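Practice set, problem 2.
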Amino acid sequence: MHPILIRIGPLTIHTYGFLIATGFLIGLYLAVWRAKKEGIPSDRIIDLGFYILLSAIVGSRLLFIIINSGYYLKDPLAIFKIWEGGLVFYGGVMVAVPTVIWYVKRHKLALWSMADIFAPSIAIGHVFGRLGCFSAGCCYGKAAETLPWGVIFADPECLAPLNVRLHPVQLYESGGELVIFLILMVLSGHKSSYKGMLFMTYLLLYSILRFTVEFFRGDEARGFLFSYIPVSQGISILMFIAALAGIIVLRQRSKRTA
């Protein structure tokens, strides 16, 4: 809706990047606050947070480029125009997870405790990330001419089709992530029966949210496994199965060590 936040002469600040940065800083602050309650040094959380940010940006951009390889082969310089949008969340997860595992093992930290600390931060960060998508017009929804809450993008610098009423799918996902965040914060206030519960709950809930939202997406750039199954829906199914398996395994492991 408003892709440019500030433009003063040659200086341009894109709303997308501003909101991404805001979400990251809020998520990092929350993780530091939660870590202090667990007796974990703040510097470890801050370091890991920046590793997560860097790896997530690289992974999410890389997957988007792979999905849209035809376009980027014709215009290689567009690969670096990250301020225009073009990040696939699941790509970020694929690169960030092994990065976290490497960091945690290197510094002899408890993997699942760290995962639980960061789970609400991922959710709240994603809330702002999707608001960024909304501002840029990327990840837009299907046409919905009679939808009362449909949105119309009119700014010529938006990436969405202009002057067409669309499903506000970015807001659907942002709102869903906010609900997930609140659920995780409520759960974090109770003693967990096993380490990793919050993180697995996040994966489970987000896979359902993303699978559902994909039905209303209208951008072809996200890629398709088949003519009717987007890449993200396929990954959502795998994530749902992995989260269920993780919950079962971690519960059983907790019972054996109790």
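Problem 2, part (b): a different protein.
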Amino acid sequence: MPAQSQHRRSFSFELYPPKTEEGVLKLRGARERLASLDPEYFSVTFGAGGSTRERTLETVLEIQAAGFEAAPHLSCIDSTRAGIRQLLDRYRASGIRRIVALRGDVPSGMREIGELRHANELVAFIRAETGEHFRIEVACYPEFHPQAPSALADLRHFKRKVEAGADGAITQYFFNADAYFSFVDSVEAMGVRVPVVPGIMPITNYAQLARFSDACGAEIPRWIRKRLEGFGDDMAGLRAFGQEVATDLCRRLLNGGAPGLHFYTMNQASPTLAIWEGLGLGSADRPLAAVTELPVVGPDRR
């Protein structure tokens, strides 16, 4: 991973737009706690429905107004060029400088994705419309996209997104560090040099994690599944074990040269804060050597 170690470390947190006033307050509280870690940016997810997209815009603008960089997601799903152009104009006028460009998940029953069918087309459109105004992040899949016909096809698709103008990538979450290292070695061998930041999912609820993982193709290693299943209703024990697993994974990634971490927070601050403390990171600009060695919690420590 020689190219990855050359990039400045970046720490970021993903939020999703709330649906209720209670959710707004919960999100605001989580964001304020996470802001103490001085992240490079907060990303905000983006759904296919119109009301969801408005909530994304509202959340992004509130984060920006609070003095932090916000990165809205943009999706191909159910989108038109005119609609994306309008959003880009609103974001640019509001001082937004970073975009996460995605194809997005196709809702059940939807036949037509939109005018732009793939993320590389969306990246190219953003570049054509706005030049270099936005830093563009894209998604990638260390364990490969579940709809990819082959591993090689998925690698080539990722390369096309970079060639279209992406500045960096955020991975789908995973629990096997070797999958990330192998993926990065493969894309670097193909000439990709952009930072590939690992996506991290804190473990707080086994049923929810299993559902998400089955849907997105993220593998939960058998030894982790069995341990999580064994906790039953002992949520405190499950979360303590989940924190150890995630913290050890982050330590391996950072010590192995990963250029930062992107946390899927699920609008909760405490699990991410606990991992951060376990790593001994302190402020976001602390040097890599400060990452603490952690005890063994699983079979894969190479």
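Answer key, part (b): Residues 284-302 have pLDDT under 50 and may be disordered. DSSP finds ten helices and eight strands in the chain.
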